[in-house]
Design brief:
Elements: H1 6-10, E1 66-71, H2 85-102, H3 107-114, E2 116-127, E3 136-143, E4 150-158, E5 164-176, E6 215-221, H4 235-243, H5 248-253, E7 256-263, E8 272-281, E9 284-291, E10 297-305
Antiparallel strand pairs: 1-3, 2-5, 2-7, 3-4, 4-5, 6-8, 7-10, 8-9, 9-10
Length: about 300
């Protein structure tokens, strides 16, 4: 498998890839604001598949802030009837895909016309109040100004009151699917919309420094149900693995108030993921995941529990 080495990009060197195997169309499906949308389904956001010459035709006007309505179902909720963190990640990646298409950069258009894909690098999510089972919510998405890195903000709000429940910030890159080269230039601009300056999380999401001394706490062999249509573990699935690295007693005693996920290398069928954990503050844990076969770092994470 190809490997994603984010640190090489951060220091100005090319790296071979990210959370997407060669040939996949990875946008948000956990690899960009549109990866987990199978080929041909980019029309969900109201866009036709592109002509060879170019620009997709939008069926709806570009929106500065994109909104979808959702309902918290049985499969979204945990034992305490709260929305699972992985479900929140899925909602955010779904709306990111739809909004990217609305702004003229659908998964299919990027892949078919330019042979590039969105790649998710890192996410920070902060919970002000958990959405609960059977609650009506709406999800919002908006991009920040385009630079070498693409930043996007998301929120989940109560549909009845408009109260903000969950906030998230994420960072993406655009990568050539053949050469695995990162497109550092301004690949496209958000034309026709006024970028919303407000940030869901002040400062967005920054690099997470490793914390030496973490101890092995959880081990997971990747099985059939762990892998998405791209043939690798989707970024929302890793959130479940992080949650399983804490005991029932820990989950019962407190609620998680924030989580960061940083994606470094991909894993797929038959790989074994080893998660290590270290408490770095009162209720704050650093975790990382490595591939058992070669010790390659796959993810790192920061989990912050409430009081």
């Amino acid at each position: 498998m190809s490997e994603i080495k984010i640190n090489e990009f951060e220091t100005g060197r090319d790296h071979p890839g990210a959370d997407v195997p060669a040939g996949q169309d990875g946008l948000a499906g956990q690899d960009h604001p549109g990866a987990d949308v199978p080929a041909g389904q980019d029309g969900l956001a109201g866009q036709d598949r592109p002509e060879e010459s170019g620009k997709p035709e939008a069926k709806e006007a570009p929106k500065a802030v994109y909104r979808i309505e959702r309902y918290i179902t049985d499969t979204d909720a945990d034992l305490a009837r709260r929305q699972k963190l992985s479900s929140m990640f899925c909602m955010f990646q779904d709306i990111s895909a739809l909004h990217a298409a609305n702004l003229g950069a659908s998964v299919a258009w990027l892949k078919d016309v330019h042979n590039v894909a969105w790649i998710l690098m890192r996410v920070r999510l902060e919970i002000d109040k958990y959405p609960v089972l059977a609650q009506d919510v709406y999800v919002e998405s908006w991009p920040q100004e385009t630079r070498a890195l693409y930043e996007r903000d998301n929120v989940i709000r109560c549909r009845e009151s408009g109260e903000t429940l969950v906030r998230a910030a994420s960072t993406w890159i655009i990568m050539n699917l053949d050469t695995r080269e990162i497109k550092r230039d301004q690949f496209f601009t958000y034309q026709g919309v006024e970028i919303k300056k407000e940030r869901a999380i002040d400062g967005g999401v920054r690099r997470l420094k490793p914390s030496p001394g973490a101890e092995l706490i959880y081990e997971k062999e990747i099985k059939f149900s762990d892998v998405d249509y791209n043939g690798h573990v989707n970024n929302a699935k890793y959130v479940d693995y992080i949650m399983d690295s804490f005991s029932f007693a820990e989950h019962k005693a407190r609620e998680i108030k924030a989580i960061e996920m940083h994606y470094i290398n991909e894993i797929g069928p038959g790989d074994v993921l080893q998660i290590r954990r270290k408490e770095v503050g009162d209720g704050v844990y650093y975790l990382d995941g490595v591939r058992a076969a070669d010790g390659a770092q796959v993810i790192n994470s920061l989990v912050e529990w409430g009081k």
